Amino acid sequence: MKFPLMIATAAATLSLGITAQADAPLKVGISGEPYPPFTYRAASGDWTGFEVELAHRLCEAMGRDCEVAPTGWSGIIPSLNAGRIDMIMNSMSITEQRQRVIDFTRPYYFTPGAYVAAEERELAIPGGLDGLIMGVQSATTNATYARRELRDSGVDIRLYDQAEQVNNDLLAGRLDLVLADEIAMLQFLERDEAANFEIKATAPRHEAYGEGIGIGLRQDDDDLREALNAAIAAVIEDGTCGELSEQFLGTDVCVYD
To answer: Do the Cβ atoms of 217 and 87 come closer than 8 Å?
Structure first.
């Protein structure tokens, strides 16, 4: 799918966003459970990460003040629709199921799901999963993919509320493998305690993963969607998105046209 970066249109939309801004800062919803390197607390106690810093740049482009609003992942969509937050910016994939209850901006990044297991484990996917225990964070596109495509493989799929719970059970030997975002897993593998684990394979492109990662919005928030789409176009075109991606992720995952 093409997403042209129309700078003149973006500038016009941004101008409208600036003149029509409300006094209250926009509340950017992220999961209260850290999801490094996308969202996590720095040593200062402030939230940072690729998506947190990108959110601040988007708000600057719109001329809006923003504040980070940590929210439980399982309740983040209800919080959006109830007006407790104004947008969700936490690696949320644009899927048909989610689009029934919320709207999205254009995608700003995409990464595949990755299977991680101990280096010593011989693993064929999906043919070699029978009898194994696999951990996946619930309410994610990886969980949707696992239910749809791996249920006949014989693998025992265990769902967890938080990504770190999955990682801890893999390290403790309670799981044979995990399926999670590739970038998050690359970060996990840099830990000393994960030195004996590796990515075995990545999941194929599948409808469960949608079009990529977008910003979740209320379905009637057309003005904010247009302003954010223009801001996303601007920060991708001027290189800000790519610079932040390289800084936090070590690679450029931004979605270009």
So the answer is: yes
